[in-house]
Amino acid sequence: MVSGAQDDESSIEKNAFYAKYADKIKKLQSSEPEVFQSRLDMAKEAKKNKAASYAQSAKQSLSDTPSPPQMKPGESQGQKSLDAIVKTDLLRQHSVEEITQIWKDFHKDKDYICAVIPSDTYSRMQEKAREFPMFLYPLPRAEGYEFFFAQFDNHCCYFTSVINYQAYQENAPALLTITHYPELQEEKGIVLMRGEMDTKLVSVQDAQFFANQLQLYYATEDAARQQLLSDFNRRPADFKHMDLIAQLSNTAVGLG
What is the pLDDT of residues 76-132, one digit of tens each? Predict the structure, then answer.
């Protein structure tokens, strides 16, 4: 899953990105969370305005080139309707296995990521997201690690890079939006997931890596990961971003 992971603290500190990000992360940890929330609100409002310029596409069951989803009354800004992508009533006529195959086939060879998440797994993710809405993720690069911030808002999780946030503050772009669709959760016991990214800055492979890490932190009960989530959201002075890299290294060793 991850290549080139460092094995000890000294090697981590020699990472090419270490000095650059250490100071930036400390500054971000001392910032008011409302600043980051403001950035997210602006990004979501921009998505909403862009979506409004498109004709309603919910009449189609599935489309090779889906239009941006439309907002529905009562939804939070940025929350997408499943009906903007598929005809939900038609999906309900299929079995879970068939829905899973339809969802995966629809996104195959497109610049999206997707998944079908069991209801109980998503419930755990939602519970932790309400408790720990923000987190930091290291993305392995050839020369080290690039750090990304993510924040949950209802059924969406927005990602932006630390570099972009430091440079643009509330105007920093959302580079990846992972949206969970709970419309079938009660009836079918599944939640559909789709990730949309700026492919100029985040590849499909990068987005899949983030989605995997998101589930590792929010859908599992690993004590070390839970401690990192808690420290980042509640005790930022105790949070050490080197621990994230160490955790990533441990994951790679486990997979090996």
Answer: 445 668 999 999 999 999 999 999 999 999 998 899 999 999 999 999 999 999 999
Q: Are 17 and 146 in contact (CB under 8 A)?
A: yes
Nearest to 194 by CA among 66, 96, 91, 97: 66
The one-letter code for the residue type at 136 is: L
Integer-rounded Cα Rg, in Å, for the chain is: 19
Q: CA-to-CA distance for 223 and 89, rounded, in angstroms?
A: 40
8 A C-beta contact, residue 204 and residue 188: no
115 contacts: CB under 8 Å, gap ≥ 6: 192, 193, 211
Q: How many residues belong to the chain?
A: 256
Burial pattern 75-96, b for ≥16 Cβ within 10 A else e, equals eebbbbbbbbbbebeebeeeee
pLDDT (0 to 100) of residue 168: 77
Q: Which helix (H) or strand (E) holds 160?
A: strand 156-161
